[in-house]
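Lecture 7 notes: from sequence to structure.

We start with a single chain of 198 residues. Read the sequence below before looking at the structure.
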Amino acid sequence: MARKLVVATKNPKKLRELQRYLRTVKANVVSLNSFDRPPDVREDGDTFKKNAVKKAVRISKFAKGLALADDSGLVVDALKGAPGVRSARFAGPGKNDKDNCRKVLALLEEASSRKRTARFVCAVAIADHGKVVKVIEEDCRGLIAFEAKGRHGFGYDPLFLIPKYNKTFGQLGLKVKDKMSHRSKALKKARVFLKKYL
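Now the structure, written as tokens:
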């Protein structure tokens, strides 16, 4: 019988994305929505790795089994690494993806193309019964566009320009993004690890 792998998220979009990457792993991939009153883990670490590890360990203990957690975000060089671990809440409480994108564009208003270097970072942690068994970190480098473009993806995707294509993740769509994104790189390594581990 396949082991249960709990993904530390309540977001249905994120669960579908993770299930897509992990579909060849012999595990029953479920989200926190499968549990009554799962714990809320405060992401107060100063790195993506710390947040991913904290979530994986806590959820693994709660579920008494195997858990996978990720933390990811945008790192902009001209903003000294911001939004960083605060990517999801960069524009403040109650704000959404569009507000976050607008804030980044406003802060970079005077910046030339050369000063708009950025990278997406994703850290994935896997824990079993409260013990960390694997941590992976990957990134994807690009530039911040001068305006949001495209309707694909979420978060900062419409701002994140891939020079090779001269298009944002928001314009490129899932097929291209899956080949090169920070999350896809990290999850492919997680998939390889889990196949051996299970």
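Residues 83 and 167 are 21 Å apart (CA to CA). Keep this in mind for problem set 3.
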